[in-house]
Amino acid sequence: TLNKALVISNMKPSFVGVLILAMSQLVFSQRFPYLRRILPLRVCRAYQPVEIEDDIEPFACQRELALASNVNDPEADKSIIQISEENGYVIQTHNVTTSDGYILTLFRISGGRRSPVREGKPAVLVLHGWGNSCDSWIALPNDKNLAYLLADSGYDVWLGCHRGTSFSLGHRTLNSNTDVNFWNFSFHEMGLYDFPAMVDHVRLVSGNEKIFIIAHSQGGAAFLVATSEIPNMNEKIRAAYLMAPAAYLGGVYEPVISSLIPIVGTPIESRLYNLLGGSFSVRDTSRFTTALGIRRADICQPKALRCGICDVYTLAPYYFNNAQTNYTNLPRMIAKLLDTGTLRSLFHAAQNARSCTFRQYDFGVMENLRRYRATVPPSYNLSQIQAPVHIFWGEQDGVITPPKPTLTTSFANYPIQRLANDLSPTALRAVIRVNDDTFQHLDYLVARDARVLLYEPLLTMMNEFVDAGSIQISVENGYTIQSYNVTTSDGYILSMFRIPGSKTSPVRNGKPSVLLLHGWENSCEVWFALPNNKNLAYMLVDAGYDVWLGCFRGSSFSLGHTNLNSNTDLTYWDFSFHEMGLYDFPTMVDQVCTVSDNEKIFVIGHSQGAATFLVATSEIPIMNEKIHAAYLLAPAAYFDKPAQDAFKINNIRTLRSWFHFGQNGRSCSFRYYDRGTVENLRRYGQAEPPSYNLTAIRVPVYIFWGEQDALITPPDIQRLASKLSPATLRGVYRVNDDTFNHYDFVVARDANVLVYKPLIELMNGFVNGDSTSK
């Protein structure tokens, strides 16, 4: 075996001793634990995956492979440009040069038959993992791969090729074939140089101020490095979606990185680096794995052996997922998936795996002192990341192992939990398990069901931001847009968007300000649900108003908190519209008054948004002095009994608000949250919660209601009107349409004529001094 290793790897005889030492360290440290005292130790134990029963009948895989071997895939050997153009996609090649001299390639897919090229599309930069390249995103068939799915969904798609891949082998002064120094980089340099260069190029060409990021494995690590080390990168990213991000690797049991763990930091590391020229092609895995002493039997699972997949010997180190493999797609998959990788990145990953950290490259004590002024490298400060982050993980991932079933204070062996814990609550938006017990590290790129399991849910999340990309759409349509973050007195971090002007009504000082507040399970982007010439936000801007969109706690734009994590802390969600009224509403109003320099502002609230106004102005007297007038669209205060069936919905997000509404519907009242007799006595000093004193409201109020509203019925409107003082209630308006219901206030095709124009006329009357009309 050793002789074969020497022949295959073209090793010099003098290297035999080094190879034997490397193999001995790997084997003996596992079989004879006491030897670990004298060998480089791994701090974390490898994760032990749950065994998945192989339910494939015997010889089924051989039949599939036999069929696959006779399949002539005409696209397997074609370039990404050929495949794209032949299938109707518009593709361009772009080159960018990093500040340290590397020349990178990006492929832009700006449109296709389903989504023609147009200006203003939201841009997304897609980054590959180690040993892959940018065309790995088309390894799946055309109707299933992520690149084309994004393009068909209306995105301006950019595939970034990191330094060292077959598409990015250029440099201003170094030759990748002859200069080993070309390969002296890891994902650290990709984060510091490649990522910023790509992001800036995409922003410049696409005209997007902020872009989306989708990254797999090492691409996710590069994102984390860039956004933690370069603060202004966060301002350029709308949201990031990280698939198995290769940050913490303490539980890794994938064979290549596991085999490198006892080697890094020893003389063998540099000898191996020089021997292989700093890199190797993953297409020829055999040379590298043989050099490490890894046998075919070590890396091939029984089911993979049975399927014959290890005969390919290229995908085996990743543990091939038999259950998610489309064997008829195998030729194209192998042709597009595998590329060149740099050894330095593997060494860096192995260092982090051994030390259970995510930190900069360890150059040894002396060089560390020179570079970092410390004996050990500094960790990346992930709490500095501000861009919204979504993390996906797979149950059978041998590289980025899954989290524990229950959260504990020990995160060492559970990379996903450690990463989630290190990100700030403001940044971390979601941690999502791919809904397949067999999902592995490469499945993000090649699983036959990746579209259903991963890509479509990801697109749904992106579309939430894009709909808020009404934020971006605002810019495209000539509307000035600004974003703000405000923190409430109880620690919730809220987003607000301001549209101070447009082509019709340019930005100027002194405009009257109006705050728009959304309903339950909506967010501030709901005001853009209608076309540009019909939605309320743009109509108000064009009418000369300084428009502010408030995003309540718990909505997709306002998931941050100074101490709590919305993904892991149940306490985060312990609020209803009561807390929104006491904390969110005053914070937003004060922000609008301060920035706009208006002493008083207008308020428009739909459903729950209107309820928060009623809470704030009845409970906080000073709030009445800051509001010109309020326009309440189907205000969710009193609920008639027939509407109670609506509260049986359980597929919801903010349960406490829904329960609060349900309590009020049952008691035919508008009062504080009912926490039970004992807790009510402790909090309120009485067995029943107190009602909101709506007679304390002094702001002029206008109420709009719909005939077919099953949630806020006409009797509910009458009850609310009777509770407001005559001086406060200025008008109760039935929408002039017998079919008008609860959500029609934000989505009805004629809402602009039936509701928005009359509302704006009432506001204009206030601005012009006529504040008494009913």
From TrEMBL:
InterPro entries xrefs: AB_hydrolase_fold (IPR029058), AB_hydrolase_lipase (IPR006693)
Domain of life: Eukaryota
PANTHER family: LYSOSOMAL ACID LIPASE-RELATED (PTHR11005)
Any GO BP annotation: lipid catabolic process
This protein's UniProt keywords: Glycoprotein, Hydrolase, Lipid degradation, Lipid metabolism, Signal
MF terms in GO: hydrolase activity
Protein name: Lipase 3
Stretches assigned to the Partial AB-hydrolase lipase domain: 81-139, 472-528
Matches recorded under Pfam families: Abhydro_lipase
Classification of source organism: Eukaryota, Metazoa, Ecdysozoa, Arthropoda, Hexapoda
Family label: Belongs to the AB hydrolase superfamily. Lipase family.
Gene3D superfamilies found in the cross-reference section: alpha/beta hydrolase
